[in-house]
Design brief:
The complex is a heterotrimer. By secondary structure, chain A is α/β, with parallel strands linked by helices. Helix content of chain A is 34%, strand content 23%. By secondary structure, chain B is α/β, with parallel strands linked by helices. The longest helix of chain B is centred in the middle third of the chain and has 18 residues. Chain C has one domain: MetI-like fold, CATH 1.10.3720.10. Chain C is elongated, with a radius of gyration of 22 Å. Classes of the chains: A alpha/beta, B alpha/beta, C mainly alpha. Chains in contact: A-B, B-C. Chains A and B meet through helix 8, helix 9, helix 10 and helix 11 of A and helix 6, helix 7 and helix 9 of B.
Chain lengths: 325, 328, 289
């Protein structure tokens, strides 16, 4: 078994807010292997963004409090690193792509200067004797690789001069040009048109394979994740409820929540049939139900589900947290 | 008396482009500086049916929605509602048809007045047409239950409801006057997948109960497919294809439709189908391309496509605006 | 019209006041000021140890002591008593100025922003006209023209104050015009006047409220300045700005006659500023998430 690139062990994080204690993550266990794309799926409020922020060291502590657990990356616990060490990891091991590139690209600098910066960071780590001109040339090559039309001109443009889709391509170029071990992408295509999204997903798959990076791809959309992920983890109220190879999750779905989520997708029934609905609502993270957090909405709930919290268990090729198994 | 509920004829909505770049020294608008949001849309909608309009950002669908309900006046073209020409009506005269023509807005967080209680929000369209307090109260109670909320919640303010519940309030407000046509502008784009399913089911229930027509506008192909009898695909201000839902989805004839349908991700890792090729990105609606507006991105474009704009012509069961519609 | 929509706003305000000591101080000062002013109106001279108008030359120029907290002035009057009795004067002036200006500005600006076009252009040019003058100079000019007295000070300041509220309301109305719920109201067939009254103006109140609170401090300053110049409250009515003026010839010797009322003005203006800052946080939509 190859050594995992990222290992999240029983991570439990809470936020102290005006409304009370907000349990963002409740014992998350996750592993990402080398050159593997892990898709993390969950609806809003399930804690997936908190996990991403924790991994990249951007969790605002306080009001967040790490109650328990660790995130292991290259043998170190990311949660215990100092600010300086976290910066080093960010530049040389983990890179991130956010949902809204307008806020993550510096509006005062040209695209070119930002991408060469990313390249120089990698060069610094590798001591590969990269010069200003060769970094620039490489930057332009990357812009071409991510499909920007006229990369030489784009190099000298400012972020606001590009469209949303193009900015996101630049973000991916910046994230991958530093040859990261892990790229974390938090809803990278959610703000894009469906045709642009399809182009970018295809592009990302290709480039990630080329650079041999692992990816933590976070999305609320199961269909998007199906397009890109090797393995899929489903998250609900701050814990992983099902995890395994993508094909397994979609064709041999085990957890009732995942089943219900898949069933509520429109596009399969004819116009006259109502969509299958998950009763109730996602509970607020300040009031997670006792026992299995999904039990109030689960059509298979048993007596034990109310008191006993299920842990992830190996079942026929993938892991499920459900008392049915 | 026609059976058509709504009819649009060559409706155009242009905006003068803002910014000094587009104006000459004497202050006149330079040529080609119009934001051609909607550029000649024609279609009809029957009673008790749903037309879905699908398109990506910049295609003009929201402007079209606003123009149909006359929140914006069309630059040219005509709109007929129940056979009557409503295009040139003044704000005051329009008040007569308002009870029959309503809209559900996209953003549940800004479509409800934060300072009004739920009951007043729902009652507002009714209070404009009648002074009968009892009637209004009864109808409000009836409607709030129909949308799946409780009478006890009528006294609350919008910020006490979740996004999905707010959207239900918006729906309640829209159907209070029992309209014949409701425009749904991205009704589920701002909510989760599971809430979306609930809202879509609710909308169908209401449609069946009241026999109303919907004009559903969305960028989400799956939603439009699930809800509509017919689908129109919009690109840069024009309809490029319009026809029965299953035909447009399964046998798309316009290259853009084909690219759009093939881009929609399916929740199945085995179906990583090859996308129909589409080059580049949607151009700005200011100064759209000459000839067929889609030609710069179309893999099948020829000389003709860059010179002559195709009309919506009949191809089997649909209307397609393409010189070389895809043959299946 | 509900200004605080529910308990959440009040709770949030209290929390901010608890966390931010400056805001709490500001709130306390503002509340104290209003309480004192109200008390004086209710109880009059019975509230204070000495008759503020009683002249007693034998007691003149006493420095601050236990019997006379702020000392006595050139006519033997107790400065502390005079300072307390002066409270409602500035309170009345400040609240009247801000109250009328903000109300007028709210309506003026909302109409302008909502209707747009010609109306907006004309209204804004009028506003610009008033804003073109340095405000204090204009206020003084109007006050001089009208003559001395508290009411005239109020009128003079309203003339100067309303344009800022009009501008603020116009900006608010412009963005409210785009709000989807305003579109929804249009779709019900509601007349434009009704939309303005029911939807635009009520939702435009919050920024005005915040700005107004901040402004109360400034209004008190302006009122004091005009009184200092002899345009406002007339003797024997005590007024802080007037007291500063009357006492300034004795500055080198009996400094307390002039300085202490001045310090009061400063503290109160500061207090309202701090309170306004805290209120701004409560109403800032980003903070509320």
């Amino acid at each position: 078994m190859p050594e995992p690139v990222l290992q999240v062990n029983d991570l439990t994080v809470a936020f102290e807010t005006f409304e009370g204690k907000y349990s963002a993550l409740n014992g998350v266990d996750l592993e990402i292997g080398p050159s593997q794309i892990m898709g993390l799926v969950g609806e809003s409020g399930c804690g997936k963004s908190s996990l991403a922020l924790a991994a990249i060291g951007l969790l605002p502590v306080p009001p967040a409090k790490i109650l328990h657990g660790a995130i292991m990356f290259k043998g170190e616990n990311l949660l215990e690193l100092t600010e300086k060490d976290v910066e080093k990891v960010r530049g040389t091991g983990i890179s991130m792509v956010f949902q809204e590139p307008l806020t993550s690209l510096n509006p005062l600098f040209t695209i070119g200067s930002q991408i060469t910066e990313a390249i120089e960071v990698r060069a610094g780590r590798e001591n590969s004797g990269e010069t200003k001109t060769s970094a620039q040339a490489e930057g332009i090559t990357w812009l071409k690789k991510v499909g920007l039309p006229d990369p030489e001109r784009a190099f000298h443009r400012y972020p606001h001069e590009l469209s949303g889709g193009m900015r996101q391509r630049v973000m991916i170029a910046m994230a991958l040009s530093s040859s990261p071990t892990l790229m974390i992408a938090d809803e990278p295509t959610s703000a894009l048109d469906v045709t642009t999204q399809a182009q970018i997903l295809k592009l990302t798959r290709k480039l990630v394979e080329e650079v041999k990076a692992s990816v933590l791809f976070i999305s609320h959309d199961l269909a998007v994740v199906a397009q890109i992920a090797d393995r899929v983890a489903v998250m609900y109220t701050g814990m992983i409820v099902e995890e395994g190879p993508a094909i397994e999750i979609f064709t041999n779905t085990l957890h009732p929540y995942t089943q219900a989520l898949l069933a509520s997708y429109p596009g399969k029934e004819s116009i006259n049939e109502p969509l299958k609905v998950i009763p109730g609502q996602v509970p607020s993270l300040t009031r997670i139900p006792q026992g299995c957090p999904f039990h109030p909405r689960c059509s298979y709930a048993k007596e034990e589900c109310r008191t006993e919290r299920p842990r992830l268990k190996e079942v026929s090729g993938h892991r499920v947290a459900c008392l049915l198994y | 008396m026609t059976s058509e509920l709504l009819r649009l004829e060559k409706v155009v909505k242009h905006f003068p482009a803002k910014g000094s770049l587009f104006y000459s020294e004497t202050g006149t608008l330079k040529k080609g500086s119009l934001l051609q949001a909607v550029d000649g849309v024609t279609f009809t909608l029957e009673h008790n049916s749903t037309l879905g309009i699908v398109g990506e950002s910049g295609c003009g669908k929201t402007t079209l929605a606003r123009t149909i309900v006359l929140l914006a006046k069309p630059t040219s073209g005509k709109i007929f509602f129940e056979g009557k020409d409503i295009t040139g009506l003044s704000y005051g005269k329009l008040a007569e048809i308002r009870p029959n023509l309503q809209m559900v807005f996209q953003d549940p967080y800004s479509s409800l007045d934060p300072r009004m209680r739920a009951k007043d929000i729902i009652a507002e369209p009714l209070r404009v047409v009648t002074k009968d307090k009892d009637f209004v109260n009864e109808r409000v109670k009836e409607v709030i239950q129909q949308v799946g909320l409780e009478e006890g919640q009528l006294g609350r303010f919008p910020n006490e409801f979740s996004g999905g519940q707010r959207q239900r309030l918006g729906i309640a407000r829209a159907i209070a006057s029992k309209p014949k046509l409701v425009i749904l502008d991205e009704p589920t784009s701002a909510v989760d997948a599971s809430t979306q399913a609930q809202i879509l089911n609710l909308l169908r229930q209401i449609q069946e109960k009241y026999e109303m027509s919907y004009l559903l506008i969305s960028h989400n192909v799956d939603v439009v497919r699930h809800m509509s009898n017919r689908i129109a695909v919009m690109y840069l201000g024009k309809f490029v294809e319009i026809g029965p839902t299953e035909d447009v989805i399964k046998i798309p004839r316009h290259p853009y439709t084909a690219a759009l349908i093939s881009s929609v991700p399916k929740p199945d890792p085995r179906a990583r189908a090859e996308m129909v090729e589409i080059k580049g990105e949607t151009p700005s609606p200011i100064n759209p391309p000459e000839g067929c507006r889609y030609h710069p991105r179309c893999p099948f474009a020829t000389e003709l496509c860059s010179q002559k704009e195709p009309n919506l012509d009949e191809v089997e069961t649909s209307l397609v605006a393409c010189h070389y519609p895809i043959k299946h | 019209m509900t200004l605080f929509q529910d308990r959440k706003d009040i709770v949030l305000t209290l929390r901010i006041l608890k966390r931010d000591p400056l805001a709490a101080v500001g709130a306390m000062i503002a509340v104290a000021f209003c309480a004192v002013a109200a008390a004086v109106v209710l109880f009059g001279n019975r509230l204070v140890p000495y008759d503020p108008t009683a002249i007693n030359l034998a007691l003149a120029f006493q420095p601050p002591s236990i019997q006379h907290l702020f000392g006595t002035d050139n006519l033997g009057r107790d400065v502390f008593s005079r300072a307390i009795i002066a409270a409602p004067v500035d309170a009345e002036i400040a609240f009247m100025i801000i109250g009328v200006s903000s109300l007028f500005g709210l309506v003026f600006g909302s109409v302008s922003g909502f209707l747009g076009g010609y109306v907006d252009d004309v209204f804004m040019r009028i506003t610009d006209l008033f804003l073109a003058f340095p405000s204090l100079v204009l206020a003084i000019a109007v006050a001089v023209a009208l003559g001395p007295g508290v009411t005239n000070v109020i009128y003079a300041n309203i003339v100067v104050w309303w344009p800022v509220y009009a501008r603020l309301s116009r900006a608010g109305a412009l963005s409210l015009n785009q709000a989807q719920y305003v579109d929804a109201a249009r779709l019900t067939g509601l007349s434009r006047f009704a939309i303005l009254l029911k939807h635009i103006i009520p939702n435009n109140v919050s920024p005005i409220l915040v700005y107004g609170t901040l402004d109360l401090g400034n209004a008190i300053l302006y009122a004091s300045v005009l009184s200092y110049l002899g345009l406002g409250a007339q003797p024997p009515q005590p007024e802080w700005g007037r007291m500063v003026f009357d006492g300034q010839i004795y500055l080198t010797g009996a400094w307390w006659i002039s300085i202490l009322p001045g310090v009061i003005i400063l503290i109160i203006a500061l207090g309202f500023n701090l309170l306004g800052d805290a209120l701004r946080d409560v109403f800032d939509p980003r903070y509320r998430k």
